[in-house]
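Regression test case RT-17, inverse folding.

Input:
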């Protein structure tokens, strides 16, 4: 199978099974099933790490759980500040979901972030949250007035910005994940077996986690801008 065929195969998200509701047929795609697996992993991890919590004489498991919690909330909360604390749980959840989704390919699953529908859904969720945060913090009148700032002539550009941000978020994530796959496949073709294994550490693990951070970082910047 050449590179073009492998790329088409990666872009093609197959239907795993179909749910029949009366005459309605709902196809369940591969990205949805892998998303359920990612959700199950995160829920199980959260359950195992947080059961039996104590306020004194905590064990190693609880200490590790608190360390992970502080690091993750610190990464996201550092950008948002105190005013944006309410949005930290959502952003940490998205960070964990994209991070696990990007590296789950190492275990033989097709990453959900290789499905453009998934990255579009993530981007729309984030932008809806950004605009909702602006309305909640400022009120509808001040939120609408922000579109004519700093001068009324820029209003069309401010409105256009609302629609280009989700496009930028989804295409950045989808493009980087797909680009990493293409580079890895090219390396497997042109260099000996050991070299791709070394680069796999970067593209399949580090780059995947980096893309999760970039997505959440940009979303937190948009929220910070919306609530100021």
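Golden output:
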């Amino acid at each position: 199978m050449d590179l073009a065929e492998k790329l088409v195969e990666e872009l093609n998200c197959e239907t795993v099974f179909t749910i029949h509701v009366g005459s309605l047929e709902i196809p369940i795609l591969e990205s949805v099933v892998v998303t359920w697996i990612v959700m199950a992993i995160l829920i199980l991890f959260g359950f195992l790490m947080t059961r039996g919590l104590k306020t004194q004489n905590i064990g190693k498991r609880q200490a590790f759980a608190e360390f992970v919690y502080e690091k993750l909330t610190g990464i996201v909360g550092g950008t948002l500040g105190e005013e944006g604390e309410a949005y930290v749980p959502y952003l940490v959840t998205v960070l964990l979901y994209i991070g696990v989704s990007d590296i789950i390919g190492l275990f033989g699953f097709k990453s959900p972030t290789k499905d453009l529908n998934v990255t579009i859904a993530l981007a729309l969720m984030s932008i809806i949250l950004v605009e909702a945060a602006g309305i909640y913090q400022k009120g509808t009148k001040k939120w609408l007035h922000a579109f004519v700032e700093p001068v009324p002539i820029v209003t069309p550009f401010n409105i256009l910005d609302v629609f280009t941000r989700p496009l930028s978020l989804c295409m950045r994530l989808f493009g980087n994940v797909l680009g990493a796959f293409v580079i890895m496949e090219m390396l497997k073709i042109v260099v000996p077996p050991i070299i791709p294994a070394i680069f796999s550490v970067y593209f399949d693990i580090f780059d995947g986690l980096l893309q999760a951070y970039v997505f959440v970082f940009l979303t937190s910047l948009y929220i910070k801008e919306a609530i100021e």
